[in-house]
TrEMBL record, chain A:
Species in which this protein is naturally found: Halopseudomonas formosensis
Official protein name in the record: Pyruvate dehydrogenase E1 component subunit alpha
Keyword Oxidoreductase: yes
Dehydrogenase E1 component domain: residues covered: 37-327
InterPro entries in the cross-refs: Alpha-ketoacid_DH_E1_comp, DH_E1, PdhA/BkdA, THDP-binding
Keywords: Oxidoreductase, Pyruvate, Thiamine pyrophosphate
Reactions catalysed: N(6)-[(R)-lipoyl]-L-lysyl-[protein] + pyruvate + H(+) = N(6)-[(R)-S(8)-acetyldihydrolipoyl]-L-lysyl-[protein] + CO2
SUPFAM superfamilies named among the record's database cross-references: Thiamin diphosphate-binding fold (THDP-binding)
Highest taxon listed in the record's lineage: Bacteria
From TrEMBL, chain B:
Keyword list, A-Z: Oxidoreductase, Pyruvate, Thiamine pyrophosphate
Top-level division of the source organism's lineage: Bacteria
Cofactor names: thiamine diphosphate
Pfam families on file: Transket_pyr (PF02779), Transketolase_C (PF02780)
Positions of the Transketolase-like pyrimidine-binding domain: 7-182
Protein role: The branched-chain alpha-keto dehydrogenase complex catalyzes the overall conversion of alpha-keto acids to acyl-CoA and CO(2). It contains multiple copies of three enzymatic components: branched-chain alpha-keto acid decarboxylase (E1), lipoamide acyltransferase (E2) and lipoamide dehydrogenase (E3).
Protein name: 2-oxoisovalerate dehydrogenase subunit beta
Length: 363, 330
């Protein structure tokens, strides 16, 4: 039986930044366009800095967002402060838009739990990034169910990669969101690769958005390298959910231009030709060309922007480096709200061992 | 004065759920068949009618999801009480318990927390189909950040469940299905929780300490009564909260009696009895009059109904273990 269901696909700017047909009215907003462009550049430069810090041993393993700047930037911008983000581990762009500080992100990847203890007002209820694949989709349904139970006009937004759509957690969550008509938006970053496994080995579904159909919810694709398309479709889905009209699955078709993480070497499993083809579709150049065409951007502005962002990033790195070590007792301080009495001896043993190691003794 | 009724354990659990939902609008109940059906054991009977579909939610048949949405709800400050229909079906939710519920507070250094309860029937002995008689509490008690609670009577089920729901951290509440309807007891609906992280001394004695929890306490108390007829005076401790363990009460008892027998239905190897025996010998090696004994389930797959009773610790096995500790020269 042929799979005849057509999934909508939205793209406003082609690879060259040329408008495809009529643009939506909201695009006539230069400050918004410039802000999106600025933010995507921040994400890319910060990402480069993170990789450099990992290579020089200043942070641990890091998952690059290279090539996916448009998805997170648009998504973070489309959410309101009332909404809650339940992110996966390649979501720096969204987190920065939510007000999470670069310093927090460096702390997280630098091996410090304080990196998820941020106090940014918009993000204070946001989940920390989720490493076990697709498990966060269930949390998003729980958050959305809480909004529904309390009758709050808020929306849960969760992200994942293409590999996550193969997991039961993801499918169970889509299913529940459909049955309960939850105010949740599922955003799939289809970057074509789950570490070394390509999209074609992940699913025989014609698109990942098709997975929404069995759950009885709308599914659609957008060009994930077109920030205008992502922003438009995600914002529509969020407002639809807020209005009580139920969940949406949006598959953002993009490409992971970097390795899976700094521990990976993608040249082992994908061709240089594929990568160089993907670079032609990357999101920053596309918006930049559009801004040039609109007379909103020039080379001098570009240079000034890079200088400003570089200073901003360097200041964040300095703040990260300057932060004092975590409290030695922290792993026990936050295990339970109140440490049970029976833990006192272990906590003392921990402090003794941690103190010895901090003092440079070994063995 | 609060009303007092003679209730079985499943009725006491139902009463506690009614009480918690009445007293706190953030308490919600979810799971398979918990709505109009009132749960397959009827623990949630009447909640749907009383509190409505917004707070009493039949979920799709998906245990990973049930556990995971409870995490999301709890992070929002609700107090979800999720039912997993049998402990044998808790395993799909283990990732959510181990990787999320138990560590959300720690991962965010207290920014988010997870005040949720998972209720599930525990243990064998009700001639149910396979996978319906698990006692795998050690798997859960091994996880830092969780609480694992198991009541042994209707009154304790009422008070401990109220405490579990009020607790600011995730609690796994194991309900011994063998005790659901076998014992009745007066229960006062006073809304008073019992303390967590605390053992209960059910019987005081001076010759040896019997340590157990859940349904196995029935046989343990019977063994203590039989031993008393022979002039052997047993102290019986109901552990009640397996994680975190109230070692102090157990150690105080064994330092008095010098002898300890741990009784549990769970498989022997790496079971909670091993932890308790290790604690006792670490702390009380010189006070012990005899090696700590264990009376447990076996390291075999739990048999189907025809042979399941042989799997469970029986009164005779407990008495023999007790006598072994007394035979040792002091």
């Amino acid at each position: 039986m042929p799979l005849t269901v057509q999934i909508p696909f939205t793209r406003y700017l082609d690879d060259q930044g040329q408008p495809q047909g009529d643009l939506p009215g909201w695009v006539d907003d230069p400050p918004l366009l410039l802000e999106l462009y600025r933010q995507m550049n921040l994400v890319r430069l910060f990402d480069q800095k993170c990789v450099a810090l990992q290579r020089t041993g200043q942070i641990g393993t890091y998952a690059s967002t290279l090539g996916q700047e448009a998805v997170g930037t648009a998504l973070g911008r489309a959410m309101t402060d009332a909404d809650v983000l339940i992110p996966y581990y390649r979501d720096t762009a969204t987190q920065l838009q939510r007000g999470v500080q670069m310093q927090d992100i460096l702390l997280y990847w630098g091996g410090d739990e304080r990196g998820s203890a941020w106090s940014a007002p918009a993000a204070v209820e946001d989940f920390p990034i989720c490493v076990p694949i697709a498990t966060q989709a269930c949390h998003a349904c729980g958050v959305a169910a809480a909004f529904r139970i309390r009758q709050q006009p808020r929306v849960a937004v969760t992200t994942c990669g293409d590999g996550a759509t193969s997991k039961g957690d993801f499918l169970e969550s889509l299913n529940l969101a459909g049955v309960w008509q939850l105010p949740v938006v599922f955003v799939v970053n289809n970057n074509q690769w789950a570490i070394s496994v390509p999209r074609c080995l992940q699913s025989a579904a014609p698109t990942l958005a098709h997975k929404a159909l069995a759950a009885g919810i709308p599914g659609e694709q957008v060009d994930g390298n077109d920030v205008l398309a992502v922003y438009d479709r995600v914002r529509t889905a969020i407002e639809r959910a807020r209005a009580g009209k139920g969940p949406t699955l949006i598959e953002c078709v993009t490409y992971r231009l970097g390795d899976h993480t700094t521990s990976d070497d993608a040249s082992r499993y994908r061709s240089a030709e594929e990568l160089s083809e993907a670079w032609k579709r990357e999101p920053l150049g596309r918006l930049q060309r559009f801004l040039h065409q609109q007379g909103l951007w020039d080379e001098a502005q570009e240079q000034r922007l890079h200088r400003e962002l570089g200073e901003q990033i360097n200041a964040a790195v300095e703040a990260f480096r300057a932060l004092a070590e975590p409290e030695p007792s922290a792993p026990f301080d936050h295990l339970y709200q109140q440490l049970p009495a029976g833990y006192a001896a272990q906590r003392d043993q921990w402090l003794e061992r941690a103190g010895r190691l901090a003092g440079g003794e070994h063995g | 004065m609060a009303e007092q009724n003679t209730l079985c354990m499943v009725e006491a659990i139902n009463l506690a759920l009614h009480r918690a939902m009445t007293d706190d609008p953030d308490v919600v109940v979810l799971g398979e068949d918990v709505g109009p059906n009132g749960g397959v054991f009827r623990a949630t009977l009447g909640l749907h009618e009383r509190f409505g579909f917004r707070r009493v939610m039949d979920t799709p048949l998906a245990e990973t999801l049930i556990t995971g949405i409870a995490v999301g709800m709890a992070a929002q400050g609700l107090r979800p009480v999720a039912e997993i229909q049998f402990m044998g079906f808790i395993y799909p939710g283990m990732e959510q318990l181990v990787s999320h519920a138990s560590r959300l507070r720690s991962r965010t250094r207290g920014r988010l927390s997870c005040p949720m309860v998972i209720r599930t029937p525990h243990g064998a002995g009700i001639h149910a189909p396979e996978h319906h008689g698990e006692s795998t509490e050690a798997m859960l008690a091994h996880v830092p950040g969780l609480r694992v609670v198991i009541p042994s009577s209707p009154r304790r089920a009422y008070g401990l469940l109220l405490a579990a729901i009020a607790d600011p951290d995730p609690v796994i509440f194991l309900e011994p299905s063998r005790l659901y309807r076998s014992v009745r007891q007066p229960v006062t609906d006073d809304g008073q929780p019992l303390p967590l992280d605390t053992c209960f001394t059910l019987r005081e004695g001076s010759d040896l300490t019997l340590v157990s929890w859940g349904a196995a306490l029935k046989e343990t108390l019977e063994a203590a009564a039989r031993l008393a007829e022979e002039g052997i005076d047993c102290e019986v401790i109901d552990v009640a909260t397996l994680k975190p363990l109230d070692a102090e009460t157990i150690l105080a008892s064994v330092s008095k009696t010098g002898r300890c027998v741990v009784v549990h239905e769970a498989a022997r190897s790496y079971g909670p009895g091993a932890e308790i025996a290790a604690l006792v010998q670490e702390q009380l090696f010189h006070a012990l009059q005899a090696p700590v004994q264990r009376v447990t389930g076996f390291d075999c797959v739990i048999p189907y109904a025809r042979q399941e009773m042989a799997y469970l610790p029986d009164v005779e096995s407990i008495c023999r273990a007790a006598l072994r500790t007394l035979e040792q020269a002091s």
